[in-house]
Amino acid sequence: MSRAPQRPDPPALAGPELFDPEAYARDGYPLATWARLRREDPVHWYEGLPELPFWALTRRAEIVEVARDPARFSSEKRFHIVAGGDYGDDPRETRTIVQMDPPKHRDRRGLLSARFTPRALRGLEADVEAITDRMFGALAANGATGECDFVEAVAAPLALAVIAHLIDLPANDGPRLFRWTNEMAGATDPQYRQAGESPTETRLRATAEVFAYFSEIVARRRREPGEDLVSILAQARPDGVPLPDHELLSYCLLLIGGGNETTRNAMSGGLLALLEHPEQWRRLRAEPGLAASAGEECLRWTTPVIHNARTAVADCELGGRTIRAGETVALFWPSANRDEAVFDAPDQFRIDRSPNPHLAFGIGEHICLGAHLARMEIRSALRALATRLAFVEQTGPVERLQSSSVGGVKRLPIRYRLA
Ligand code: HEM
Q1: CB 25 within 8 A of CB 341
Q2: pTM value > 0.85
């Protein structure tokens, strides 16, 4: 689809760095490009992805406007844009709540939302602490000092163990779940693709494997329901009948996928930010009570979901531009979180930042269902870092995920001394 430029001579405000997965792996987030777009063209028609040109939204104001208006901007057709492998009409694609519009979206989200309120999660806090304790305990197994990849040793298993606990999955399924979530969220990263596969084939293969895995679990929970999330979904009769299998399995997949990669990256990206700002690390160690506000700043700073997408339902105006029905808009959450109109000194990492109205969890209709759970995990990990490590330093470069959907840290090598 091509479109007449809305300005006579639009300058090249954004290049491949805005959407090229390789650029994200090599250079990290395109902060300078986002800042320029916020300043000069916050609703920017981007043609750098020829198969799917889209509107790039970079200011918090327009991003909030779109995310809060599902009647004008639908999630159904496309909830994010996949470079080189868009979601199609393939019946093997997922059908999750993040891809639904109201009223169905509210109805389906309502099946689990009561389990994710801060109050409902309070009972889980001790379990999350115990899981964190186990991860940090493993660091102590080889003595008071050591080296590890923080992603592999702490961030990934912690996020996985918490969601597996909520779904009551066997502990030794962790490695399989780890592989599947990597393949689904990191399908554009060659490391996670099998020989000859395209990103779409990788994603669909992993999706089919996750569906087969959960089919067995659902069958068991139908026979012997427990208190876990899959049991709730397996018993649900939202329209007077059980959830269709494909929808139920998609819901399970979203819990596993949504709850893993993102939380893992907020933790590893958060530690990286602390290592890059030693005065903030010292402050956290001196005041572990700051873990909650430090967690919010790590979320703002890392913003692990790079973008989500919406489709305009009808022609409309947005930030002085005309969006036509059927066009795609991309909401760049990390850019909203550096918006100088909202945040004081947005390029400073301050663990006591207040207020901190970041959009790492999105906003509006689809605001992250697991936000309070993720906060609890990140808080717990930061408290453990601050109180259990006397010293920590990075021993090599980070490896980043090749993706323009999830900002991932694949490897963060560290050396540490326990307190
Ligand atoms: C740091 C961690 C996390 C981040 C940054 C994050 C980010 C997000 C974002 C940005 C959205 C909104 C998508 C949109 O507007 O289109 C979302 C939705 C969602 N997230 Fe998370 N998430 C995190 C952790 C979790 C966890 C732990 C779960 C576990 C259950 C989870 C489950 C979901 C679900 C089910 C949705 C869909 C909600 C809906 O469509 O109503 N997330 N998340």
Answers
A1: no
A2: yes
Q: Concatenate the DSSP letters of all residues of 216-279 into one string.
A: HHHHHHHHS--SSHHHHHHH--TTSSPPPHHHHHHHHHHHHHHTTHHHHHHHHHHHHHHHH-HH
Of residues 338 and 7, which shows the higher confidence score? Answer: 338
Q: What is the pLDDT of residues 90-138, one digit of tens each?
A: 788 888 999 999 999 999 999 999 999 999 999 999 999 999 999 999 9
Q: Assess if residue 10 is contained within a domain.
A: no
- The CA distance from 96 to 233, in Å, is 13
Q: What is residue 89's predicted lDDT score, i.e. its pLDDT?
A: 72
Residue 7, domain member (yes or no): no
Number of domains in the chain: 1
Query: What is the per-residue pLDDT across 345-373, written as a single tens digit (0 to 9) for each?
Result: 999 999 999 999 999 999 999 999 999 99
Which ligand 1 atom sits nearest the alpha carbon of residue 109?
Answer: 41
Q: Which residues line ligand 1 (CB under 6 A)?
A: 67, 75, 79, 97-98, 109, 163, 254-255, 258-259, 262-263, 266, 304-305, 308, 333, 360-362, 366, 368-370, 373-374
SS3 181: helix
In whole angstroms, what is the distance from residue 207 CA to residue 161 CA? 20
**Residue 333's CB: how many other CB atoms inside 10 A?**
24
Task: Write the DSSP assignment of 102-165 as a string of letters.
Answer: TTHHHHHHHHHHGGGSHHHHGGGHHHHHHHHHHHHHHHHTT-SEEEEEHIIIIIHHHHHHHHHH
CATH number of the CATH domain containing 231: 1.10.630.10
CA distance readout (Å), 353 to 60, 285, 292, 332? 18, 17, 11, 21
Q: How far is the CA of 177 from the centre of ligand 1 (A)?
A: 18
Residue 1 within any structural domain of the chain: no
Domain with 287, as residue range(s), is 16-418
Distance 31 CA to ligand 1 centre (A): 23
Q: Which of 368, 379, 409 to mutate to test the pocket of ligand 1 (most atoms within 8 A of CB)?
A: 368
Domain assignment present for residue 6? The answer is: no
Q: How far is the CA of 257 from the centre of ligand 1 (A)?
A: 9
